[in-house]
Write a structure and sequence with these properties.
There is one protein chain. The chain is an alpha/beta fold. The chain has helices at 4-16, 20-35, 38-41, 59-67, 140-144; strands at 45-47, 71-76, 86-89, 96-98, 104-106, 111-112, 119-123, 126-127, 133-134, 158-162, 183-185, 190-192. The longest helix is centred in the first third of the chain and has 16 residues, at 20-35. It is globular.
């Protein structure tokens, strides 16, 4: 099996090749699929992300969260040297600033602990149908949600990957500290791994 680094390199190249039109259509299609699903309709506190470069665009989902009166949050890097994420409220008028990775995050916005989120939409580079994910390699999501590995009874938050269908592979290499996704949304389908 290829290493995570090899898979990341191949999939990032494929993702970069997607045209702008296909990206826009995929974001709209994925958003429609999510809005029709109980995974979204039954949850109130939802963390998203602001897509970078060629990541699957989360904007239509964020706009739907606002329109439906749900609460939207974005990941922020803590000021200390911790390598976990915090989550801050995000509204249309929220002030944003770039962090050390050049990613926009809310400023002076109320925060919520990861345990209190209902649904977290997670960016990724590759996924399989067993819930494994390869991200950019920083390990932030795995460290932040490590508490979900401690017991099978912790169901919150639901971790939902967001990716293009071409990022799906039959199997991925994984480490014992990797936190499993409970599902992944693409432009074609919402894969709910808990129902498999």
């Amino acid at each position: 099996m290829q290493t995570k680094e090899e898979i990341r390199k191949i999939l990032l190249t494929k993702r970069r090749a997607i045209t702008k039109e296909i990206r826009t259509n995929a974001a709209d299609a994925g958003s429609r699929l999510l809005l029709e699903h109980p995974i979204f309709s039954t949850r109130q506190h939802i963390a998203c992300y602001l897509s970078q470069m060629d990541e699957f665009d989360c904007t239509p989902i964020i706009q739907a969260i606002w329109q439906l009166g749900k609460k939207c949050y974005l990941p922020i890097l803590p000021s200390q040297q911790k390598k976990t994420l915090e989550f801050a409220a995000y509204q249309p008028d929220t002030l944003l600033q770039r962090n050390k990775y050049n990613i926009f995050e809310p400023v002076n916005s109320e925060t919520i602990t990861p345990e209190k989120l209902d649904l977290v939409i997670v960016p990724l580079v590759a996924f399989d149908l067993q819930g494994h994910r390869i991200g950019m390699g920083g390990g932030y999501y795995d460290r932040t949600f490590a508490f979900k590995q401690k017991t099978a009874f912790i169901t919150k938050p639901y971790l939902l990957g967001l990716a293009y269908e071409l990022q799906k592979l039959s199997a991925l290499p994984y480490d014992q500290w990797d936190v499993l996704l409970q599902g992944t949304l693409t432009e074609k389908k919402l894969y709910d791994f808990e129902k498999n």
